[in-house]
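Pasting as-is:
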Amino acid sequence: MADAVLTLGALARADLERLLDGLGLDLRWIADGEPIPGSYWGEPEAGIIGTTVYARADTPVHSLLHEACHVVCAPPDKRASIHTDASDCQREEDATCYLQILLGDAIPGVGRDRVMQDMDAWGYTFRLGSTRAWFEHDAEDARAWLQDRALLPGDADAAPALAAGGHDH
């Protein structure tokens, strides 16, 4: 992981808790140095078990958003059984990446530009070479996947937290 990525410790916990609560998720804070339950990539990356997202102060913001979005993108009847690995298919993984970028706008001091920058620094790979290029020029399938499920922020039919958060363009 690059040292330059924004971590949760730089943000107000209340803002992060409010976002996840609005998505129907619990944010469980883990003490510094303690293992993070449900972490797919290992510490300091966020973990998921059911509808709980686990994170520490040194967890990257993009990681918290990614894992939270995995749960949001999962079919409601499968959310409770999620443990560590939530992805069902590549389209769902792409939708998760797209949604995490949008939800960056819902966190004061973050925004989609920072999320994309940190995704690149961490090592996400897209065929157009950067997260921004993918998001702006190659993510139509991810956007359509989210739209079909009313998961785009700003959609009138979206879940309340999604309808209120982010900027849709």
